[in-house]
Amino acid sequence: MTRPLDVLRSIGQQLLHGSPQAKALGFELVEVAPAEATLKVAYRDDLIGDPDTGVVAGGVVTTLLDHTCGQAVWAALPDYAPIATLDLRIDYMRPAEPGLPVFAHAHCYRLTRTIAFVRAQAYDRERDDPIATAQAAFALHTNPGRGPSTQAKPEGAA
Amino acid sequence: MNEAETLAAVLARIPYARFLGMGAELHGDEMTAILPFSDHLVGNPTLPAIHGGVLGAFMEITALAQLSISHGQGRQPRPIDVTVQYLRTGKPVATYARAQLKRVGSRIANVYVEAWQEARAAPIASLHGHFLVSAKEAAG
User: Fold this and answer.
1) Does the bond joining B45 to the residue before it have cis omega, within 30 degrees of 0?
2) Which of A52, A96, A104, B8 is a good FRET partner for A79, with 20 to 30 A between their CA atoms?
3) Predicted ipTM of the assembly
4) pTM, full prediction
5) Which residue would you say has higher pLDDT here, B34 or A79?
6) Looking at chain B, which residue has its C-alpha nearest residue A85?
7) Is A119 on the interface with B (CB under 8 A)?
8) What whole-number distance in Å separates Cα of residue A82 and Cα of residue A148?
9) Distance between A106 CA and the closest CA of chain B, angstroms
10) Helices (H), chain B
11) Cα B129 from Cα A91, distance rounded (Å)
């Protein structure tokens, strides 16, 4: 059983606001549903990776995908558990269009007792025309300090 | 430009590298990328730990910079795919990274990057990826 949508949304917002890097990049929560999350980052000059083309840095997309995958795991878990990214594979399909925001949608499609498996897409216009796709595995129930992407426990979480 | 100047120019031109606050040092042909700790890099404030995405991004730019100093100053290489593995928590201290160019073909380069903090023998993350490189004559 996953938690009610309003609880998921509130936890999602707290996870974003509690993360200085997500704040610095200006991540916004677009949508959260059981085992799914959609986040957005606005186009900004200081996030450009290639000044010749104005294309946003691959690293911004990497962080957006990592963060969105983590949120999807949160939205899949019945109760609070610390999580840590084990690995993240990203395929870059095409450059993001300069001037447009980048969205990421992640789906936690399988949970075991110890591991969460997640797929995600980053896109600027349509989800079926991705900038990048990602596949990630997260360790669940990790002890604090176990992994670099360990998410903060949101206030009020069970 | 010598290699050290090329390296400085490559990093200075990337707005996002400045956003992260990363720098690099060149000793002979070996580059060490440096990411000084800063509060805005934190993903989880309760540990605190550097955001996993930041570590991936830092290693990605390390790969790009190593390719630029080793293989010319044409168009910036573009990532094709990367796999990032997380081994240890990124503590609130400086992070370092070095890239190994496993193979650089005429169009595609295979690069391995390792990031560490206190001890190089205890890496905190690694990145293995392919990058699209343009031939030197295609520069411009």
Assistant:
1) no
2) A104
3) 0.92
4) 0.91
5) B34
6) B86
7) no
8) 12
9) 15
10) 3-13, 15-20, 52-70
11) 10
